[in-house]
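Job type: complex structure
Entries:
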Amino acid sequence: MVASSKRVECFADDTDLEASSRMPTPDMMAMEVHKVAVLQDRTGLRSFRHSLSEVFFPDDPLHRFKNKPFFKKVVLALQYFFPIFDWGAHYNLKLLKSDAVAGITIASLAIPQGISYAKLAGLPPIIGLYSSFVPPLIYSVLGSSRDLACGPLSIASLVMGSMLRDVVSPEDTKEYLEVAFTATFFAGVFQAGLGLLRLGFIIDFLSKPTLTGFMGGAAVLVSLQQLKGLLGIVHFTTKMAIIPVLKSVFDNRKEWSWQAVVMGLSFLVLLLTARHISTVRPKLFWVSAAAPLTSVIISTIISYVLRSHEKGISTIGYLPEGVNPSSVSMLHFKGPHSSLALKTGIVSGLLALTEGIAVGRTFASMKNYQIDGNKEMVAVGSMNLAGSCVSCYVTSGGFARSAVNFNAGCKTAATNIIMASVVLFTMLLLMPLFHYTPNVILSAIIISAVIGLIDVRGAILLWKVDKFDFLACMSAFLGVLLLSVPIGLSISVGISVLKILFHATRPNIAVMGNIPGTNSYRDLAQYKEAKRMPSFLILGIESPVYFTNSVYLQERILRWIREEEERITNSNERPLKCIILDMAAVTNIDISGIESLKELKRTLDRRSLELVLANPVGEVSQKLSHSGAWELFGPECFYMTVEEAIASTSYKI
Amino acid sequence: MVASSKRVECFADDTDLEASSRMPTPDMMAMEVHKVAVLQDRTGLRSFRHSLSEVFFPDDPLHRFKNKPFFKKVVLALQYFFPIFDWGAHYNLKLLKSDAVAGITIASLAIPQGISYAKLAGLPPIIGLYSSFVPPLIYSVLGSSRDLACGPLSIASLVMGSMLRDVVSPEDTKEYLEVAFTATFFAGVFQAGLGLLRLGFIIDFLSKPTLTGFMGGAAVLVSLQQLKGLLGIVHFTTKMAIIPVLKSVFDNRKEWSWQAVVMGLSFLVLLLTARHISTVRPKLFWVSAAAPLTSVIISTIISYVLRSHEKGISTIGYLPEGVNPSSVSMLHFKGPHSSLALKTGIVSGLLALTEGIAVGRTFASMKNYQIDGNKEMVAVGSMNLAGSCVSCYVTSGGFARSAVNFNAGCKTAATNIIMASVVLFTMLLLMPLFHYTPNVILSAIIISAVIGLIDVRGAILLWKVDKFDFLACMSAFLGVLLLSVPIGLSISVGISVLKILFHATRPNIAVMGNIPGTNSYRDLAQYKEAKRMPSFLILGIESPVYFTNSVYLQERILRWIREEEERITNSNERPLKCIILDMAAVTNIDISGIESLKELKRTLDRRSLELVLANPVGEVSQKLSHSGAWELFGPECFYMTVEEAIASTSYKI
């Protein structure tokens, strides 16, 4: 159906006239009307296949193999599954130099962070070092990001600690370790499973507002927990929620130790200052990267010289030397705590994954390459699966250390290998040096790390852009702070999902008018220059029409008509004759929506008002056709544009 | 900003030329470009108030009170809250005549149905009659539908029975009644609460596919349950699920009674034939309406004459005479079963409400009046609240009896009063007559009533229109049949909601082209005549851009660009210069969506590709502006139409 060539005439010459005198011109009458096409029938199976491939393979991973010889295909597949073969093939000394600098820098951050985060999770400090050794090695083979630095994460550690401590006491080290390793195993299975099943989009459901609120709440929680170390309190609650923690702090005022407070606050100020310097001048990234290790060294020396552990400052104490011992025998899939381990594994695994992928994507976009979410999940999952067998707990790519890595000029995932080597060296030779490291310094390191997670500016931006998102953010924040980590998280995921449903339940309807001098019709509320068309009511439905909104839309359209008729009566304009629904934004429709349209048509027929639909899109045209509504309504009900609908119905009026 | 009058020139004269030669004409160059307006700022509070009023008062219930004197306002308010004052004021003998015929007709249906449905819920038969007396009277005062006939419902009875029997044995009559009345009380509170809080839209979440599947499954379940009566089995399972029921049937083959089978099947055939006659000829509505009572009378006479209760046919037995006794003392809000009562009340109350409102809406639309969902909820809730105090269980408006009511020519809610009077007369004087009524006839009545709920045609239509909806339907069907009623219901509500989320997670992107002879741009897949514009890639995003799809859209758009560039290379066309996103269907955007747009812009800038947005709608323009993205992108990035975008960027290419 090729249209013959005719000039489309618009309401061009009458923009200065009153709206009520805007009669159809002869030109308009002669306007050619285009048939609305119904989207070509895909057979059920093909359409289903298409849907599936959009869900699971939106990136079309096979496109790189197209038209390649067999050998090349094998190499490509190897490079696809093990990215190390990709970058490893072109590796050279220059890259190594860059990576070595970055790797040593992040190692100096990773060692104190590893020890601190393990304590946060309620685990012995040495587990944090173990977790900074094996997982980064695995990531360097499987990971597709060039900037991610792997190891324990503050949020995942916090969540694991808070969920496990509710049931198991960290005092009972063996049982606690067993549950923690089993949870790590489940986290790995869950993460790799999501990736293999290509369900990576599930992490997208943790929206920005949710994460902003959650991270903020978690950061406050973690910081409060550190009051134990900062104040030198010995008897402290094992609960994470804000009330028992504050109670512990003030009930044990007698245990406060001024030596711990002075030392802790001094180093906290030092660390925060270092962080600030690096934020303001990214070139000085090494200031904040080196600050934790420097603090550890200085405080250990002070502590050793002053014998401060005798003066109310507790120290880390003995750490065993040697590499990761096997923990396969500690994985228990039956028994009283297996469901706890499963739950903890899924929640902390999900959060670790979300952080890792978000960080990976951020830096990839800065360097203009793409990472494959599903592949990253498999890499992170493998890290945790393997880690759970060699005394590691949940790990992923962390924001802080990846930022340092990026600023230190990392080039490939080899930085992880170098970092792991430094950690190995430490574990083999330097463990006795940590004996006198005061615990208060670990608290200061944790606080300075998590305080950056409180994103006040982000929250303000949310308030500006969308009040509902701000609500979701605050719910997550308060939920985590006052209730518990999993509850806070569920509430805010729930609110984010409700927002989508809400949009689909109460969609906006725009009353539209002609933009003078064009044949476009736009929202009267948005375009002040848009003019109503006498005798017509043009409504833009701004949502798919589903069971959740079909009744609402039907009744709301009738209300619009009632209000328009009242307005017309009051202003003595020409009576309403025709309602045009602009369907451009109705991207889908279901049975309930079709029923509602039919009913609306019947109702308006009885009131001698015409109902026509402009610009039904592909999917909608197809569904209207399959349900028989297309024939029922008749072809004179469908127009390609609002303009053609007006021109055609003008005849009859 | 009023546009000056210029003729909009289109690609009118070159439709016959090759697409690749379609250069911008001088006319196009001179085309006036309209500034994209940003939706005027509503203050946070006003926008919030507007949102709230759309959620809770979409029908603007106060509009009828506008500009009315005080006395009139009082009368209108009275009529609003008690519709009986509305229709009662104009009531006359002619209306009474119609209502009397309809009322007596539905009473003849309501009495046997009441007895049968009470048995379905595991309650003594007399409770079914009590429930057909008080609730209809209350509805006639508060209800806004003219066609709804109230009383017990098959589905709600089934659900209540199945949920209660899992925990409490119906043999323990007192305890069972206590839980049932308490559940009814909770159902009433829940229903009236939804209405008062104007949360009526919640029932819209039970979508058509869900209900079709659920009703079908429930009908099969109920029918299978009736095998007990039809086969005359004495020892039968109290479970509802299909496996234990079939096991009961075949394990107790010895108890099968041929007398019961013969009598049951004969009357079932009679009832189904009567139903068929009334379906084919709606004028003969009285055939199906009178059939149940006729069957009861005939079977009772046969049973009395043949003394059949001595021959393996059980009968109803003694029914107490008199009106509803008070049951206030049987409502227990504490104790072991209160949470069961709460759960049962909410589920059965929700289903009763859904049926009542759907039926009310259906008949209202046939007679061209509107019912107010929230008001109906208050009416139904009051029925159940009051009912729970006078020995009634969950009631609402039923489909079958309302259809009979409609066909019998009912005019107002007075039919409910007349029906209640007939029930009262029966309860006071005719109870001994039911002594010999065989139970098998009640089973036949139930089967013939619920078999109509199996909507095979509806399921086929779902298959045709949307495979996903069909899946939701079948999940509800199988879930109810094989698992349990609440689980089946939750699964299918979950699937319906997932469908909406899915649409928001993997939205369609349409590649668009110019419709020759117009300035419209449409989906190439839908309109075969649409032509690509050389150097341009026009993508229509068919969904709001949210956190659930922002990453997908960003990556999918890059894939579209990659594929377009491959196509261009293969066909030796002019290289791609500009990507136009048609935002007409992007009805909303959130922070993540804005971030993705920014990142896409950055990525394309690096590749020297231009990105422009056409027709951002009100809400989106506002959010882009508030987040600062509008200024960041610059005005040359936004166009009112795709055409103006092409005309303007043509300069630079």
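Summary: Chain B touches chain A through 112 residues (CB under 8 Å). Residues 1-30 of chain B have pLDDT under 50 and may be disordered.
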